[in-house]
Amino acid sequence: MEIGIIISIISLVVAAIVGFTNIKRNQHADNRQAAAEMTTVIVKLETLNNNVTEMKTELRSLGTNYQEIREKLIILEQSTKSAHRRIDTLEGKETSSNTH
Fold first, then answer.
1. Residues 23-36: tens digit of each pLDDT
2. Which residues of 31-64 are buried (b: 16+ CB within 10 A; e: fewer)?
3. Which of 2, 15, 28, 38 minimizes the number of CB atoms within 10 Å of its CB?
4. Does pLDDT of 63 surpass 70?
5. What single-letter DSSP state applies at residue 100?
6. Residues of the chain with pLDDT > 70: what percent?
7. Three-class secondary structure assignment of 7-33
8. In whole angstroms, what is the distance from residue 68 CA to residue 64 CA?
9. pTM of the predicted protein model
């Protein structure tokens, strides 16, 4: 064989090995970068999940507070109606006692 052919074959083998090694190295770097990006996304999703959970808890609390306020308002309205009836009754007695 000629030296040129042997050098060409050796060059081809070395180029193939270097190319394969670079592909593997790039693949590892890509995997690390993808893992870092995925970790960031997971952390952000967990934060969003925690925020949504907090908001749900606050909404339940607000609902309970709203219900309590509603019940108190109903009692207040009933008490006001009763007070108006008593005032009307007292005013009626005063008017009738003034005419006698």
1. 988 888 888 999 99
2. eeeeeeeeeeeeeeeeeeeeeeeeeeeeeeeeee
3. 2
4. yes
5. -
6. 92
7. HHHHHHHHHHHHHHHHHHHHHHHHHHH
8. 6
9. 0.50
Task: Tell me the mean pLDDT in the region 25-52.
Answer: 93
- Whose structure tokens read 């308002």? 73
- Enter the tokens of residue 44: 């952000």
- Residues for the chain: how many in total? 100
Exposed e or buried b per residue across 2-30, where buried means at least 16 C-beta atoms within 10 angstroms of its C-beta: eeeeeeeeeeeeeeeeeeeeeeeeeeeee
Nearest to 41 by CA among 98, 60, 33: 33
Quote the tokens at residue 61.
């609390």
| Token representation of residue 6 | 């042997």
State the distance between the two ends of the chain, measured CA to CA, in whole angstroms. 145
Residue 46 identity: E
d(CA 3, CA 95): 134
Q: In this structure, what token pair is assigned to residue 73? A: 């308002």
